[in-house]
Design a protein that fits this description.
There is one protein chain. By secondary structure, the protein is mainly alpha-helical. About 50% of the residues lie in helices and about 10% in strands. It has helices at about 1-10, 30-60, 90-100, 105-115, 125-135, 165-175, and strands at about 75-80, 80-85, 145, 150-155. A hairpin with a 2-residue loop joins strand 1 (about 75-80) and strand 2 (about 80-85). Helix 3 (about 90-100) packs antiparallel against helix 4 (about 105-115) and helix 3 (about 90-100) packs across helix 6 (about 165-175). The longest helix is centred in the N-terminal third of the chain and has 34 residues, at about 30-60. The chain is elongated.
Length: about 180
Amino acid sequence: LFYFEETFHQLGVKVWYASQPELNTGDANARLLKALEAFKGEGSNIERQRKSIAGQTTALQQGRYTFNPKPGYMKGDKPGIHKPHPVRSAALRKVLLDIVTKRVTPTQGLIDLNNSEFMKGHSLYKMDKFRKIATDVYYAGGISIDKQVKVYNLNGLHEPLITLEQHRELIRIFDDK
């Protein structure tokens, strides 16, 4: 609050509190009241943030993915439960299974994916992005978030494209690459 007041002052703008004229006097009491008002607003922001994180964590622990659908998926009928895209998921699944069964290398898998219906309307993937997708537990039915919200749940409510064992094999293959 005080930073913004000073910034406006430097710009030649006078800040005036119309709904609380007692804050306009500039004395010690007005500064204290301003600080209390700012504290209430900051407390409200912190409470909103805490509730948002708690809500996301609960949803993720229940198996609902509360963010935008991952590549190959689309929004489902229920919030947080995405469903496989009718075209893109099949193309991605084929490439992942081709890599797991060693029919193709990860490099050839990326080429195949970039030449498939999966990429319709998207720019081509590079190996770093493809590696993140291919080794993401989400495609094996799990949910893993390690940001402000931290959750690891192997029991996502969305339909997996591959098995957990196939996921582990993909990780081994990409780690060896």
